[in-house]
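Issue 218. Parser rejects a valid record. Input:
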Amino acid sequence: MKNFSLKNMKKTTKNHFITYAMVIIVFAVVQFMVSGGMMSSLMQGLLVPLCTYSIVAVGLNLCVGYLGELSLGHAGFMCVGAFSSAFFTRYMEDSGMNPNLRFLLALIIGTLAAAIFGCLIGIPVLRLRGDYLAIVTLAFGEIIKNVINVMYVGKDSSGLHISINDNASFTLDDTGDMIIDGAMGITGTPRQSTFLIGILILLVSLFVVFNLVNSRSGRAVMAIRDNRIAAESVGINITKYKLMAFSISAAIAGAGGVLYAHNLSTLTALPANFGYNMSIMILVFVVLGGIGSFRGSIIAAVILTMLPEVLRGLADYRMLIYAIVLIAMMLFNWAPKAIEWRQRFSVKKLFHKQAKGVQ
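Output the parser choked on:
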């Protein structure tokens, strides 16, 4: 029996192992810093958002990097996951259900709701390509946001009451409770999201996407991305595999939305939360981290989420430095000379040169 070693592992397996190890090591370091009082309250407040944006970036990278389709609607899927899970949590708040079980069910509901919407949107949308697909997915995100902003949902002893006019359209009895109050959103959601839960969801998301891209289905998805006509000519079901990848990508975004919703006491579908800018920001994480690189998406999401807060003390220069960092990261990842330099000074080559020198 062969001894286990990294040399005997496939290159992709090594990369996956490194990504898992990176996430776990960062979690351990952060927990040590928090327990030792070495991290400010501001940075502690960013831990859950960092996990949220990393999860959504991983989901979008599956769509953009491996499916090869540009989607600008992942803020919409995130919104679906956030509101469906927060609605379930608020509805079951007085039921006496165990809070941890309730959160787990809310996570499942939010993820499945986003996957269902991804499937429903994907059936007609994935027939389009390029800019047309981006425009339609962007429209979906805006529609979802605006529909939630005009919804009023309350519950009392007689059941649920729903209106798209105003909360005066129905009258709740003494036991009544307003769950969704139009543009005011959902208030009073228990803040159950923690850094540990965020890391666990991120690890599960990575496990799902890594196993998908290395499976037979993943190879079919990449074949469709590389050459649709050739893939169809060898019998690959284009619609099936594109819809599967798109739905999984939407489900991961929905899981990120659940984490986002349970980190806020008030959840609103304002443009600042789930609008066009949110979709563009997530796409920036994917592009800067490297299209097709899940590890790069996580690193970019962490750096670009932390940077504005770290530079907050610089006032007017904060966004200028943020823009310079964006340009520098883009050049470092995509400029031909930068790629050559990285390849020349890669860790693997440096170790190879050292080994030759020792010999």
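Fixed in the parser; the record now loads. The beta strands are 152-156, 159-163, 177-181, 186-187, 266-267.
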